[in-house]
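DATA SHEET
Item: assembly model
Revision: 1
Owner: S.N.
Input lines:
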Amino acid sequence: MTASPRELDETADKRVSAHEPVTGIDLPPQASEQAPIYKDLVRAHAVTGLVGLLVAATFGLIVATKFSAPEFMGDTAVGSWGRMRFAHVQGILYAWLMNGFVAFAYYGVPTLSGRPVLSRRLGWVIFYVWNIGIVLLGWTFVLLGYSQSVEWGEFPILVDIVTVFAFLALGAQFLTPYLRKPRGRLYVSSWYTTLALTFSPAAFVIGQFFPEYLTPGAMGAVISGLWIHDAVGLLVTPLTLAIAYYVIPATTGRPIFSHFMSMVGFWSLVFFYPLNGIHHYVYSPIPMGAQKVAIMASVFMGIGVVIVVTNLLASLRGNGYLTFWDIPLRFVWTGIIFYLLVSLQGAFQASMRVQEQIHFSDWVIAHSHLAMAGFASFIIIGGILHAWPKVSDRTVNRRVANIAYWVATIGLSTMVVYLTIVGLQQADAWMSGAPWIESVVVSKTGWLVRSLSGTALFVSFVLLIVALYKAPSARQRATLDDREDRVAAGVSR
Amino acid sequence: MSDEYDDTAPLAPEAADKAVDPVSDHEPAWVRFLERGETIMLLGGIGSLVFSFLALGVLPLIELRDEVTRSTPEQFTAMTAKEEQGFTVYKREGCAYCHTTFVRDTPSDVRRWGPPAEAWEYQDQYPQQWGTRRIGPDLSRESGLRSDGWQYAHLYNPRSTVPQSVMPGYPWLFSEAPDGTVVPNEDAEALVTYLNYLGRDIKVSGPQTERGKNAMNGDAGSGHGGM
């Protein structure tokens, strides 16, 4: 726990007030009695998400192991590479990331809007529908061979229908508080949540149903490309940034660095991310104009990300030392650094002459893991750890969480570095015109390192769950209670 | 608790203070407009979805539909029922996650696999299986390259034909005959039929588009400028 962020707030405000007005819009407001936080829903989604992460990571580890030992679990269809890969990708999205986002939304949305979410009962319906009707049902289907071979949409159509309704219910749950707010202005995190929950249901419907029934072949690839990037750019990214924009000022007690940069970053995401998708199919039969627009949008997206990251990191001005001892903040900070790296990498990799050589290689896999395991997962973990002491009767075990941080950071960095090296080796083998198998042979060491670094990530996830089970000391409990009295609400910072 | 929430109650003091911050109220009207939930939903959520779907969805779709109509050669054959079944197996086992089925019009791709992918080749594939990763080679020009026997042996145990391969075997596509030999089942036969369908038509007709013809003349990728 950081010692009394409110005190930091006051001293900091005095320090800068002469030349830097502290605007309310740039600082998350306090929770209030009018906007209760449903702590049980926060806990349920957070813990289910972390358990789902363990399962999805296990699928990933099995996939990775098969690169070094192709016969491993290879006798039955259920354990085969393709089906494990489906279960891995969909598990990360639906079992882990979305549960994490929803957990934090139940914590953040009432505070930010000053209104409760639509309904606690609806919340529990969504919880069960999501985790049984989508995650468990979807996993069962793809492992049994009933899947939809659309990348980032492998759960079958039946599960897709459930997902559409679940998305709409999430929209009703979390958009209602924002629309019912009678006056005042929305905080930055709220913009991102609102955007994601409005954009994604329709994008999901187009991405899942068009390639399956309406648009064959090259036309389907156009739509699939849009969906692959919309899932990442308009669902995962904004919901992740919503957490980052919340945790930093809530921890430091200082407002966001620049309201203008918040706006420019947000609206550049709105208009450039959705145009990125076709960069997955460059040099394909898709019309050249569309490919070039997608590549240019990728570069502009990179510029927007630089603005967002600058704004977030500058919001720590004068409080950077907090990242050393506030572990939730450190997870968020690291996630932001990964965001910068992964976005610059993406903008670079989208350009044609680079794609010509390295597209289809493991460097792209490095990119996707840096985005999902690095940027999104680190920030969600930071958000969950930040909220945990205020939504449960437990606290975060700092020592264990600290170890988890370092294991995850070193594990992921190793994975990304090695997959980058392997990707470049593969590209070199392909361009040289050597027999195809050469590109497989040169990859074998890197693939082994990936399995080991993936194991490290898995261990850090286990440690995180352990870290959540620490009972708070009497002193910590007293501090929390005291602050709860002060804000007369179920939450404080 | 929330279900009985009273909508007319005033905001908590803290929230109210923040909500009508005197400094931020001096910001221009357009800034305040862009911060409204309704603006973000309509302009951000729905507006950018419609814009991106029209610009990079509908427009390319129309262009592709015209190109398919224009360029489909008479040699084009739709998938037979058996090939369709093989396509289903191909999708179910996730083959597309290691094997692409589109040759790009880059020199290295064309040199390795032949004519670049053309939109008409894929006009009856729901959903498309182009793929985004190549662990194994592209398969879109697989037709006629290898014997059925090689394909079956490779599917049953890839290392029997390519010792260094990391491809998984698919023993559940095979069954054991009474005399102890391993024979392909219906799924394996359909899959190999599908593999032999991939690229069959374009190998007869040759490229039908300017882009494809240029690539085969050694100008692969030259029409793209230098992005």
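QC remark: Chain A touches chain B through 122 residues (CB under 8 Å).
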